[in-house]
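Weekly sync, protein design subgroup
Attendees: M.S., D.O., the rotation student, P.L. (late)

Item 1: inverse folding check
M.S. brought a backbone from last month's batch and wanted to see whether the design step gives back something sensible before we order anything. D.O. pointed out we never logged the input encoding, so this time it goes straight into the notes. Structure tokens as presented (147 positions):
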């Protein structure tokens, strides 16, 4: 039982350093794994936002059938279920407005940076952990600023 103010035995410094080093390595690996998992989840959200053409769609109270996404939109005539679709990321001139063109570019760049960051996680096999964390951290910061 430890009594406050009573003399205690301390670990030698070399043993304390080993304990702290072991805890640090274990915690840094756990943080790295969590970072990789959250990066993959962020990439999935980013890709879905970029590719999904159904951001806002028609419902029961809308005056006209149709939907639109970032660079693709479909409009119906209200008489039939057929929709006329336009817009493609490969044909940049078909994107309806400048705001949607800018958003397409920024989301596309963000998606490329995040997917590149996932690829950079393979650098753990070739570089030091700190270097990989710095590279991926700056790439993710740039990707988030694009959104």
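Designed sequence read out in the meeting:
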């Amino acid at each position: 039982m430890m009594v406050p103010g009573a003399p205690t035995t301390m670990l030698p410094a070399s043993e304390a350093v080993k304990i702290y080093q072991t805890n640090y390595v274990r915690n840094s690996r756990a943080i790295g794994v969590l970072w990789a998992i959250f990066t993959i989840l962020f990439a999935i959200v980013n890709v879905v936002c970029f590719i999904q053409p159904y951001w806002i769609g028609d419902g029961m109270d809308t005056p006209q059938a149709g939907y639109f996404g970032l660079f693709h939109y479909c409009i119906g005539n209200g008489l039939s279920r057929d929709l006329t679709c336009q817009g493609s990321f490969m044909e940049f001139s078909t994107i309806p407005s400048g705001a949607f063109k800018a958003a397409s570019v920024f989301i596309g760049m963000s998606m490329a940076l995040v997917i590149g960051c996932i690829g950079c996680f393979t650098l753990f096999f070739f570089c030091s952990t700190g270097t990989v964390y710095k590279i991926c951290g700056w790439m993710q910061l740039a990707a988030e600023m694009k959104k």
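Discussion: Residues 3 and 9 are 12 Å apart (CA to CA). The two ends are 57 Å apart (CA to CA).
Action: P.L. to compare against the previous round before Friday.
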